[in-house]
Amino acid sequence: MKKKLLSALLLSTALLAAGCGGNDEEEAHVDEEGCEHLQKGPAVAVTAAVSGTGPAVSNDHTRYDIALVDVAGGKGGAVSFAVSEATDYVLYTSATVPVKVTNGSGATVEFEESATSSSLCTDIQGRYVVPLTVGTHTLTFGPSTLSSVSLVIEESGEHDHDH
């Protein structure tokens, strides 16, 4: 009886550990994707808008090299991101720069997580997990002393992609 109880306990612990590990693996995969695209592109150059929604960026496995413009307090600007599926997205930046996300109504969308690094990739200097609804959102950068920042957007938990 004790052996069966011990076996059941060990099995349930192993299953619990395996279940918890899935999120870590998923997060690591998304970070690998973000890092790969920050390093290798493909890249598209855009110039942020001083105000309004700005040029469009997407979660299309592309690195957006964003030229920041003069704003109050330094360099910054905005780009727009049209969301077709309501889910969590991960915004990766190549530099530590303030980032703010607003929805189509102008309300700030709070980050679920934010970090200035990734243990998997030193090129990731900003990592922001944000739940977004369907619609166009504005990503505002700055103010900063930097003249540009690179951005990659990945769908959280996304596994399939074309390079």
What attributes does this structure have?
163 residues, alpha+beta, Jelly Rolls, six-stranded mixed β-sheet, five-stranded mixed β-sheet, 24% helix, globular, disordered N terminus
What does the oligomeric state look like here?
single chain
Question: Which fold name is given in CATH as the topology?
Answer: Jelly Rolls
Low-pLDDT segments: 2-22, 158-163
How many helices? The count is 1
Beta fraction of the residues? Answer: 35-45%
- Total discrete domains: 1
Task: Lay out the secondary structure.
Blueprint: H1 2-40, E1 43-47, E2 56-57, E3 63-67, E4 69-71, E5 74-83, E6 87-93, E7 99-102, E8 113-115, E9 126-132, E10 135-144, E11 148-155
Parallel strand pairs: 1-3, 2-5
Antiparallel strand pairs: 3-11, 4-5, 5-10, 6-9, 6-11, 7-10, 8-9
Task: Provide an overview of this structure.
By secondary structure, the protein is of the alpha+beta class. The protein has a single domain (37-155), classed as Jelly Rolls (Sandwich), CATH 2.60.120.380. It is 24% helix and 39% strand. It has one helix and eleven strands; from the N terminus they run H-E-E-E-E-E-E-E-E-E-E-E. The protein has one helix spanning 2-40; strands at 43-47, 56-57, 63-67, 69-71, 74-83, 87-93, 99-102, 113-115, 126-132, 135-144, 148-155. The strands form two sheets. The chain has a six-stranded mixed sheet with strand order 1-3-11-6-9-8, with helices on one face. It is globular, with a radius of gyration of 19 Å. It starts with a helix and ends in an 8-residue tail after the last strand.
Structure in a nutshell:
This protein is an alpha+beta fold. 24% of the residues lie in helices and 39% in strands. It is built from one helix and eleven strands, in the order αβββββββββββ.
